[in-house]
Amino acid sequence: MATIHDVALKAGVSVTTVSRVMNNRGYISETTRKKVFDAMDELNYQPNEIARSLLRKQSNIIGLIIPNVAHPFFSELANQVEYYAYQHDCKVLLCNSHMDPVKEKVYIDMLKRNRVDGIIMGSHTLEVDEYRHLNSPIVTFDRQIDPHIPYISSDNYRGGELATELLIRKGCRKIAHICGNLELNMLSNQRTDAFRDVVNKHGAERVIVQTDLNVFAQKDYERIIRQLVQEHPDVDGVFATSDIIAAVAMKECMRTGRRVPQDVRIVGFDDVSVASWLTPELTSIRQPIADIGRLAVELIRKQAEGERVEPMNLLPVELIERATT
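Given the sequence above, the corresponding structure tokens read:
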């Protein structure tokens, strides 16, 4: 296997010059730069990235830990994080925690060993001290785990207001809200707070149904919603805290002969791509996924460069009305 010394010998330059070319430091003539790159290609030289990151004290790698990459919201978020990281010459290590604290700890230890420039957390199942002692920039999404750890969140409360107010305006009088497990300390619980406030304000009847603690276990949604429809056949509006849950609610209504939106009006949350692929197309609260990905990368980079960042980063949501309401 070729070494940096072999490259220097082949190109007829010093090892220091080869290092400066690889790290793009100092003035190097185009002739010398070409000699070095030609020698690297001819020798099939692969720089030791770990050694280079130790030298630079920067790896240009960002860790991303999410609960489930199969979930459309998190797959779209991962896509945006990777896109914006690449614009800044960074790569992304994607870790799928499945809400398993043992697995999450393994991934965090791996990211620390690889000296990543920072970690974007879309999942946290460990004690807060595990995150405080990372000694690495960190940003969380929809989770406020410590006053000193910056987080990004959409305006969940406003999203819950927009969804519930729309159903009220459309004439719904008994509205079901299907949400994640409220025992989890998630900022998304504010969607439920807003739902309660709006239905109480208008005197509508409400039903709240929570998922199990593994809020991303999609196979359980059908069972939960089927039970809801059986116990509350007079529900005429549904506000689901994800588009996937809303899609399952649509399917269950159709299975039982209830028309959407004539008999039941449905609003989802996230506005992932699948929302506009459904028939009828799904009304949803749009989270600015591209802005979330861009801001997450920006906050990691700023912290890595020693800049101060705001702990709370709240982004606006938007009601996208389609055929289900």
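The chain has a mean pLDDT of 89. Try to locate this feature in the token string yourself.
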